[in-house]
Amino acid sequence: MVDIGILLQILFWGIYAGCIYILLATGLNLIFGVMKIVNFAHGEFLMIGAYITATVFFLTGINPYLIILISMLALVAIGAVVERLCFRPILGTGKLNEIFLSIGLIYIFQNATAMIWGDEWQSIKSPYEGITIPIGSLNVPLDYIIIMVVTAVILCALYLFLKKTKTGREMRATSQNRKGAKLVGINVERMDVLSFGIGCALAAAAGTLWVVSGQVFNPYMGSIPAIKAFAIIILGGLGSIPGAIVGGLIYGIAENGAAYYLGGVWKDAISFVILIVVLVLKPTGLFGESGE
Amino acid sequence: MKYSVLFIAALLIATALIAGCTQQAAAPAQKGEIKVGVIASLTGPASNVGKNMGQSAQVAADEINANGGILLSGSTTKVPIKLIVGDDESTQQGGQKAATKLITDDKVDILVGGYSSAVTSAYEQTIAEYKVPYIVTGASSPIITHRTDIDTSYIFHHCPTTDSYGQYTTTFIDQVVRPAVNTKFNFPDSRPFRLALLYQDTAFGKGVQTAVNNTIMQNKLNIVLVSQQSFKMGESDFRTPLTAIKAASPDAVYIAAFPNEGAPAITQGRRDIGLNTLFLSVENNDNAQFYKDIGQYGEGSIIESRFSPYTAPTGALADAQSKFKNSYNAKWGVYPDMMGASTYEGVYIAAKAIGNAGTTDKATVRQALVTLNMPHVIEAMKGGTISFTPDFRESQFDLWMEQLVYNQTIGECRPFIVWPDNLKVTNFVLPSWYKPGSA
Q1: How far is the C-alpha of B138 from the C-alpha of B168, rounded, in Å?
Q2: Is A89 close to B3, i.e. CB distance below 8 A?
Q3: Which listed CATH number (3.40.50.2300, 1.10.3210.10, 3.40.50.1240, 3.30.70.100) goes with B163-305+408-419?
């Protein structure tokens, strides 16, 4: 007999995991939507965001939830530099160049991080780690509520930016039709830098929430989440931000459900089983449009 | 297009150069050196323990060389050790690369090290092929020397196997924890103790699982395994398997994990899941970073151990352990862990075997290891000597159980030996917040 309390707990942990995936996948999708580039090094921005948050926290003791802003701003800058120096020169030269470039970036970021911070695992303590809130039959740590709220706030802010601001509309226009956007006078290269920077900032937010939740981090932490983020955006539909959100939630819940019912070794595998099933039934993904 | 190709080529070269920075390059061979290769996880998820192993080996080599080195037959002067550390990158492929390079390029005379059982077993075929004596000091799965698909006769196991410490911990649960729970909560002795397992889905974790199951069955212990949850190596989110464990109402949870997994598992269990139960950990968690990460949530938990950065049994080896810890701390600025201790001893064992053999001829050194009988170095060995069993070439350790007590001043837990009786400094106590499971 299924215990509803257990199901609710698994659902809760799934939503928590989904929040990290959503932020990572949304950033990746934003970049793909505007620039149409494949960046396998996106998980490394999550990792760098985690390290920046931890470093500022160790140096200043500031509440790590506030450091998320510092980390995101730093990643906007790092993302802009990476876009300008690495991806812009090869834009439109073929997917193989993008793939090899991003694989190279993975090693560069991992080794550079290991040289700067060391490659041993680390962890930080949230100031709220001892606080729990009763929600129905669950006794939920406050940190996870904050993580979900922060994720929702970031996504709402992104939605408002894309829908209500001129720059956001220009970014969407570039995403829909790059040539058309150019023809109507939109500076698409500026859109590239902006989308890459914002995408990296979202990865930094994911990295910050990862470390605040008490998970350990090291320079190699980004690789698996990046692969999952790719699977999520394919599942949700390439370029579709609602698809990334729904896909992230599906993956988070499915992984935790699989870990409970099938065992921990199925945690990662179930994501790709779902991906294969969805692609067989709907090759463009849940929210994708044909031609992407 | 031309520029992008050039750029990517430059990038790949830079990547290779930077990646190479994490590998210790081997210096050219010099005459009159005995080359000891150390395989350790210098990078990747197991790098905390791996670096400890490599650095401990260096401390041993420095000490041996400070005494002149090793005396070989037909020579009046000792020959110094040259230590070459290979990085297995915490992966099977990395282990294969490191072993091959050390054997074929660096031409080492003997090998020491190996942490993850999954990684170590992946390159054992290479060891068998080249017949290089290898003293495994970290990989604890018995398959390391028990497997029959390859020739393991050149491999010697100098760390307790999952069989031995799985059995030891289960016996401790039966003899100490179960009676304490029954006494405190007025349970009849006939009540089965409810044990849950959280284990890494590798040869190491499965080895512990098998040992616990076998110990319960063979000794007819009054312990029932209420939940057995696995996880992938390197996992950091244990909330769902711990939720499943909590649903099974355990009296205690035995975690077979690396320290970078064990610390978050206990923290998440206590903090996020509300598992107010006793957590027991495998010996490799007796690591300074583990104590730092686990913080207040380690209070009351148990670690099976044989060497700790923060405690030692009183007796003849206390001074030797203290000397090693101080030498290590002076050289590297931190304290060594258990895998470092056995690797430190591994280098001494290698030196002793080569000294006894009087040559670096690999077959002769192997035979010297087979007949080795040397006084224990820093870890307590059964009978006070290091020797390898004739069947599976395993050395026999004296183990103990520690209970962690939270020290508010330093903000970390510290271990106290609670079992066996001849080593304990205090009694095992159930924490005040402990809640037993129920059927």
Answers
A1: 18
A2: yes
A3: 3.40.50.2300
Cross-chain residue pair A263–B229, CB shorter than 8 Å? yes
- The Cα–Cα gap between B88 and A86 comes to 30
Q: How far apart are CA B16 and CA B334, in angstroms?
A: 30
**Nearest Cα residue in chain B from A112:** B18
Helix (H), strand (E), coil (C) string for B61-106 = HHHHHHCCCECCCCCCCCECEEEEEEECCCCHHHHHHHHHHHHHHC
- For residues A184-188, give the mean pLDDT: 95
Give the pLDDT score at B12: 42
Contact A119 B22 (CB under 8 A): yes
The chain B residues in contact with chain A (CB within 8 A) are 1, 3-5, 7-8, 11-12, 14-15, 18-19, 21-22, 43-45, 47-48, 51, 201, 229-232, 235-237, 239-241, 243-244, 247, 260, 263-264, 267-268, 271-272, 274, 289, 293, 295
User: One-letter amino acid identity for B207?
Assistant: G
The span from the CA of A193 to the CA of B59, in Å, is: 50
CB contact under 8 A, A264 and B235: yes
Please judge whether A264 and B1 are an interchain contact, meaning their C-beta atoms are less than 8 angstroms apart.
Answer: no
The residue extents of the domains of chain B are 30-160+319-386, 163-305+408-419
Bond prior to B420 in cis (omega within 30° of 0): yes
Q: How far is CA B380 from CA B282, B307, B391, in A?
A: 17, 9, 22
Give the rounded percent of residues in chain B with a pLDDT score beyond 70.
93
Nearest CB partner across the interface for B44, out of A10, A129, A220: A220
pLDDT (mean) for B262-271: 93
User: Are A216 and B12 inside 8 Å of each other by CB?
Assistant: no
CB within 8 Å: A259 and B241: yes
pLDDT, tens digit, for every residue of B204-259?
Answer: 999 999 999 999 999 999 999 999 999 988 888 999 999 999 999 999 999 999 99
Has the ipTM of the complex gone over 0.90?
A: no
Separation CA A213–CA A190 (nearest Å): 35
Complete domains list, chain A, with CATH: 4-281 (1.10.3470)
- Write out pLDDT tens, residues A191-225: 999 999 999 999 999 999 999 988 889 898 998 89
- Report the percent of chain B where pLDDT is more than 90: 80
Q: Do B163-305+408-419 and B30-160+319-386 have the same topology in CATH?
A: yes
Residue B289, phi then psi, degrees to nearest 5? -65, -35
For B30-160+319-386, CATH gives: 3.40.50.2300
- Best residue in A47, A124, A211, A216 for a mutation probing chain B (most B CBs within 10 Å): A216
- Tens digit of pLDDT for each residue in A123-154? 888 899 888 888 876 778 899 999 999 999 99
A162 to chain B, minimum CA–CA distance in Å?
31
Structural tokens at position B111: 């090998």
Tokens 């921005």 locate to A45
The whole-angstrom separation of Cα A107 and Cα B180 is 52
Q: How high is the pLDDT of residue B4?
A: 46
**Burial class of residue B222 (count of CB atoms within 10 Å of its CB; 0-12, 13-18, 19+):** middle
CA angle A210, B404, B270 (to 5 degrees): 40
Tokens 């394919």 identify what position?
Answer: A234
Terminal-to-terminal C-alpha distance of chain B: 69
Average pLDDT over every residue of B257-284: 93
